[in-house]
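Trying the structure run again after the queue cleared.
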Amino acid sequence: PPEILTAELSGLVLETAVWGAATPAALRWPDAPPPAAVGQATDLLLRLGALCGPPGTAAVSRPTAASAPPILSLPPTAKSATQAIQNTERPTQSTEISAGNCIESPGKSFGQAGESFGYAGESIGQAGGNVGQAGGNVGQAGRNVGEAGEGFGYAGEGFGEAETAAAAPSGTAAPVPDSSFLVPASSLKATAHGRHMARLGLPPRLAHLVLRGAALGHGPAATRLAALLAERDLLRWAAPTDTRPLPPDLRLRLEALATGRPPLPGLALRPATLQRVRDVARNLAQRLQNLPSTPKTNDQKPVTSNQKQDIKIAPEALTALAYPERLAQRETPERLRLATGQRVALRTEDVDARAPFFAVAHLTGEASQPRAALAAPLALADLELLFADQISSADEVAFDPATGRVAGRRTRRLGALLLADTPIAQPDPALVTQALLAHLQQVGLKDLNWTPAAQQLQQRLAFLRQLGGEVLVAGFSFLVDEGNFNQPETSNEQSETSNEKQETQNPWPDCSDAALLRDLPAWLGPHLNGLRTLDQIQRLDLVEPLLARLPGGWPQRQALDRLAPAALEVPSGSLVRLDYADPARPVLAVKLQELFGLTETPAVAGGRVPLLLHLLSPGGRPAQVTQDLRSFWEKGYFDVRKDLKNRYPRHPWPDKPMEHIPTKLTKKRLGGG
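Done. C-alpha cells:
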C-alpha cells in the first residue's frame, strides 16, 4: 500500500501546521492520509507542545459517540501488533486537557485524558522526518535517513517501532490506536516550540528531545543522542554469523560514538553508520545554534546559563524526553513496567542490575511478549527533573488482606511508576471507612458479624416485605391505623403496574444480600467510623444498623415486633424463638406438651399468617409438622402418643390434650398425671 497509509504522520501534521494548513485533509493528495493516523499524530504533537488552540479555546474533552466532531473521528480498527505493544494499558487520570491560548508547552506526556502513548509504529525517518529537510541534507546527496534499509527501523536493522509493526499481517496497513485528542484541526496551529521542532528536520519526538535537552544545558549531548536514535544501530557482532540480539544498553552506543571503538569484546562498529551519526549530530548542533532563542514553555521555568551548569543529568537519560510513555520501573530482574502500565521483558543486568528506573527507547518482539531492545538506566533525580510537573502525590488507603487491617500510604507516581511509598500512621478516617467498605463490597457480606439475632432480623424484614395483596395492605393499614407510620405518597397510579404500586407503598426496606451489598455505604458506613481492622468489624453487632434502615423510625420498630416478633410466648410460659428462614412460612418449633390447651394455630402479621408448627418430642426431635393445631389434637396426636409414650414415659401424654395444663416439666415435677 502507499506509504502514507501506514506511516506515522506526526512529522507531516507538524509540517502542514507550520505551512498554515488547517489540516492535512485540506490539501490535495494522491492518497489522503488516514484520519486515524492524523488524529494520533495530533495527539502526540499536542502532548509535546508543538500544537495549540487559538486564544479562548475551551478545554478539549474526550468526545462521546454522540458529540464527536466530524473531523478526525476515528473508525474502529483491528489492533496491530505495534498497538498492542505500545498501548496495552491506559492510565485514566483526567478527562480533559487544555488546548487553549496557544501556551507554549511541550505537553503532558502521559496520564492525561485517559490515554496512553503507544504511537503505533512511529518509524524514525518516515513521513517527512528526513534528516536534512528543507534542503539541509547532511552530506548524503539527498538520501533520506531511513531509505534503502539505512534508516533506523527499516529492514530489521534498527530498533524502531517499524520492527514491531512487522508482526502485522503482510500487505495490511498497521492501524493507529484511538486518539483522545479529537480536536477540530482548524482550531490548532503550530507553537513556537513546534516551529523550532520543524526547523531541526527531525521526527517530532527527537526534535523535542533536542530542544528540551538544550534548554536544560545539555545541547551537545541531546544532539548526539538524537542523531544516534535517528540512525540504524552503529554496533554489530564481530562474528557475521552471530544472530543474538545486541546488548540493549544505550550507553554502549554513546561510548562507541565518543571513542570510535567497540565498547565490549565481541562487538564491532559499522563505520559508515558511525560517520553518519557524527555528521548528523554536528549538523543538528549548527541548526540549534542558528535557531532563534529557544521558546520558554509553560512547564519550564526560565533557565539561566549559571543554572544550566547546576543541572546534573546523565546524557542517556534525555532519551525519556523522546519516549516518555516508555519510562519504566523494574518489577523483576526480567521484567519492567512502563509508565502506561504495560509490561515488557528486559534482563536488567544487561543494562544496570541495580537501577530502579529505565528509559526504553525501542521495543521489539511479538505483541504479546514485547521486549526492550534499547534502554538506559534512570535515576530518580532524573525523573524528578524531567517530569516534575507530571508527578502526582496521593494518600492511598486500602485494606490489606494479609494483615486484616486498613493501611495508609503516601505515594508519588509518574503514570504507572511508583516513585515513593511511605506509610501513614493516621490515615484520614473517611478514607479508612471507604477502604473497609471497598473490601466488604469485594468479598461480600460473609465477613460481617451475622449473629443469630442479626440473621433473624434480616429474615423478619424479608418476611414483612414479601407479604403481598391483602396481607400486605392489612399489615400496612395496621401501621397507619396505629398512627405510627406515614404512608408514602404515590404518583401516576393509573400508569403504574400493581407491582410498582406495591413497591412504592411497601414500608419495609429490601434486606436481601444483594440489596444490603449494594447499599452498604448507606447503612453500614456510619457504623464503621473509628474501625480499622477486620476483627473490629466482626465484633460489630449488625442489629442496630439493620434497624436503622427502617424509614419509620421507632414507631416502625414497634410495628416490626408486633407483626413479625422475634419470639412467641407459648402456653407453657416459655418464650420460643421463631424461624423466618422461609419468608412464606415462618416456623415455631416447640415441644408439643407446651401447647396443651391451645386449640388455634398461632399466627403473625396481625394474625393473618399462621405459623408452621414443628411439634417436638420431649427429646427435641420433630414429631409432627402442621399448620392446623386443632386437627392435630383431634387426630394426629394419638398416633404420635402411641409412638412416643413408651419412649418418654416420664412426660405427660393426656387423653384430652386440649384440656390439659401446658407444661415443659415431667409428670413428677408437675405433680403427677
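The chain has 23 helices and 21 strands. Worth checking whether this holds up in the mutant runs.
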